[in-house]
Structures are given as C-alpha cells and as structure tokens.
Amino acid sequence: MQKKEIYEDTFDRTLPQSANVIPYTWLVGTLVSFFIGLFAGWITNLYHALSYLSLIFSITYIFFVINVLMFASQLYAYTVDYKLLKGSVSNFIPTKVSANKKKPWSSISHLAHVRGSFIHRWHTTLMHYGSFSILVGAITKIVEMNAEHPSLRMLASAYLLLSSALGGFVLSNFEVHLSNSFSKKYNTLSEAIHLVGAFTYFVMGNFAFALYSSFSSFSCFLLGVTLVGFVLHIWNKTYRYKSYEGSDHSEGAHEWAHAMSKFNIATELAAGIPSVVAMCALVYQFDNF
Fold it and tell me: How many domains is the chain partitioned into structurally?
C-alpha cells in the first residue's frame, strides 16, 4: 500500500505547503545564529553550547506545534493498524489509518503517533535532539562533581535534570501506539511508560532548576505555570469531556473534537515551555556550580 493512500484522510493533507516550510526555516536560522554566537565568543564553554542547542531544538518544536494548531483543520483522533516488516521481529509498519471524527487527541504525543506523518517526524527528531543536549550536559556535570565534593543540593539538581532528559527520550522514542493491532495490555503498558516519561520531562526539570536556585521567584513562576497547564489539561479531559458526552451534540461532534484537540495540545504546550526554559537555564549555569 502506498504511503499517500495510507495517509489520505489524515490532517497532514490539510497543512498548506507554507506550514511545512516554517519549521525548516526556523531551524536553519537558529543554527546559523548558533555558529555566529560561537565565533563571536558569546558561547564560551560546553554547557553554554549544549544549552543553546537544546533551546534551538525546543523553540523550533514549539513553533512547529503552534504551526500545526494554526493550519491543521482535521484535528480528531486516528487509530493505526500495523504489521511486522517482513523478516523483522520488532519493526512495525503502518498499513491503515482510520479516523474517529468524534474523538479528540489527548496530547501532542498521541497526535504524533501516526508513523511517517509530518508531525511524527518533527516530534521525534526535535524532542530527541533537544533532550540529548540536556542529557549530555547533565552527565558531564555529574562526572565532574564525582571528582569534587559538591553540596547535596547541587548533586540533586544534576540528577533531577538527568531524569528529566531521560523522560524526554521516552517521549520522543517510546511511541504511544494505542492500536488494535496490539493487545490491550501492551497499549496500557505503553501509555503508562509514556506518562511516566511526560511527568519526569515536564516536572523534574522545573524542580531541578528550582532546587539549584533555592526556589527563587523566577523558578517558582516556571514551576507554577507548568502545574497550571497540567491542571487545565486534566480538567479539560475529564470535566469538559463528561459534560459534552452527557448532552446531545452529535451534529457538531467534528467541530467539538477539533476544538478539544487544540485545547489539549495548547495546554500541554503551555506546561512544557517553562520546563524547557528551566532545563536550558540550569545547563547554561552549570559552569557556575
């Protein structure tokens, strides 16, 4: 089955060509600014470079998600049927995409689980390399501190940041399949692992920066915004869903699913931005430990 047949009814085809170009343009522009900063002497050590690189990938990711929210016109859930690639025991390939126009996406990761789609490629790539930059910074600092006698607060900050970066790896590489091709136990386990990764990525990075800065007003503000975003996200998926399902709005189900998808993704993005800022700020200040 050809790829264009598999993805014929997905939101990818609702994105104009300009929407596909925007993330590439931003990524190239920020990478150029990185090298300008490098040669101009603004980036003076490894931690500055890693922080800047992570920020590049993270900001590109943020603009990419905003781009999808602005241009996509079919943000309702899809389920994907998979089959094993011939000769492989673990590599699954999509064979069919089925739309459920009455069900919204619950998160960015659910939206990005359709393998081979535009958003799947960008979600996996940008989050992977953004988390990898933070991971390298955290491991490097932990190795450095092993030769010294750091305070418990500094050591805990570095390890919390390490757990946050690992959570990012889980989010980018451990997909939420939620497919009828897999067993219910596998789908449940997959989603549970993904939720653990989301918690560590969003919350532990904030706590690491707050602990390092002795819970300064700025770090508490970042943590507070993340928690508010999570509360709104959970409230929307519980209270508003139940309120809608308890009423008769079958004719507007498509519009409702699209609007709820946007709200879910927007609140998750709002919760994630402060975490990214906190992690990048902490890595940038690692040379001051």
Answer: 1
